[in-house]
Amino acid sequence: MESCNRKAVEDGVDILSLSIGPSAVPLGPAAFLNILDVELLLATKAGVVVVQAVGNGGPGSSSVLSFSPWVLSVAASTTDRKYNNSLVLDSGDSLAGSGLSPPTEGDGFYPITAAEDISASNGSFPPLKNCLNPDSFIPPMAEGKLVICSYTSDSFLTLTNVATIANAVKAAGATGFILALDRAAASRPPKEMALSLLVPGILLGSWEASRALWEYYDSHTMRGMDGEVLSFEAMGRILDGRGAIFTGKPPVVASYSSRGPDVNNAMMQTADVLKPNVMAPGNAIWAAWSSKSDGDLYFKEQEFAMVSGTSMATPHVAGVAALIKQNHPEWSPAAVASAIMTTANDAGVGTGPLLAQRANGDLVAATPFDYGSGAINPTRALDPGLIFDAEFKHYIQFLCAVPGTDEDSVRRSAGAGCPTAQREWCSDLNSPSVTVASLVGSRKVERRVTSVAAETEKYAVTVREPAGVAVTVSPSEFGISPNETKMLRIDVVAKEAMNDYVFGEVVLRGDKKHIVRIPLAVYVSSTLML
Questions:
Q1: Which domains does the chain have, with CATH numbers?
Q2: Pfam families under this entry (predicted)?
């Protein structure tokens, strides 16, 4: 990576899109001084915009693996594109599900069987409900049928498991399969997956659809005194699930997307840095793919695949950065990142918040530690009105303020010493967000905004205060001309210790329609004034 970064600088590239990162927080006095991050700082100094995946370690706290404020770190979201499918029963009922799957052949109906009813019940393996063991099937009983494969939790629905099921069903001679919640499963929120399947298949992700299938199956399956199946009378067919639909729903933070807060070091001491920075589409993305890869059998020997991860979200943001550089080639990397961050969307349905997936699939209100400044808005990013700029010397000053560092360690790593002898706060870096990892009493934070608009504009400041924290911004109104820079003072005062991070925002609304958002993230350690 060190060689690649240096080569990129030598070749004069404008954007580095890094769908890669460390596997853990690096050892040493500061995560920001690891070899990769220092190389990225030097690339930034050379004018390269660095965009990096935040990692796929979510939804756990402080799972981010992109640390530094000179890097634009990207979280992953879902999109409004879905691959819906339906299981049609011969009773006329249709059960909604999902799955990027071909249909069953023709317009006819096929017998439906539960996996346990066509599995051997003796020998070295028990009857299997989940279809993961291909040797458990009795092939003559599976031939030409749709097999119900049970699951009890969303964690079972991995690409590996689904591929194994598809292969097992196909090897047994079945027509296709139906993934349904086990009979004993409790009611739960619906689950959707963009499953890519080689054989007809469907995921019934809702408890209601699964329950309806089991009731239909049980009422149409004739059994003997000992429970053995005498005849399979349940019939159904799977429709074509390969057509995309678009729901118009706002993005949701993907469960796997790594979360903040950012950390200073491997001791997991939280940092005065907001991470992630922004969020972009990363779930079920059509992407270039090696035709030799065995990662997804559905796309074997193809040059494309459907892939999920923050590695897929990152190129979206890099593309927006490239558009900005095309329109504004003179802008610094910090200016480009600022434009993307301050124009991002943080609203969900109506005026509600963006939502985030938990590990179990439940949705909860998201915070800036899930999505940074919000979901990217490429159109607005091209005309942000104001930017928060920073240079190499400012990043060096930031490093000198990081707990555990000193001028010698910074000079050894980054090749430059501290610009001033006075030790500042990390939160003094002129970034388009304010994070205070340990607020004791109060803190004064200053930000410099520069107008990149074509005409003079007057801005009004509004504040949404974090719970237990008072925030004032001065001036509360200001006019600014093209290329002019103004100083904003943000005073953050602890009123109540909440024993957790609290969030708010400062919004600058211009009379020429520009809206500049500055997320606030504060942890109150003490309300006592020093």
A1: 1-78+249-384+391-419 (3.40.50.200), 81-245 (3.50.30.30), 430-530 (2.60.40.2310)
A2: fn3_6, Peptidase_S8
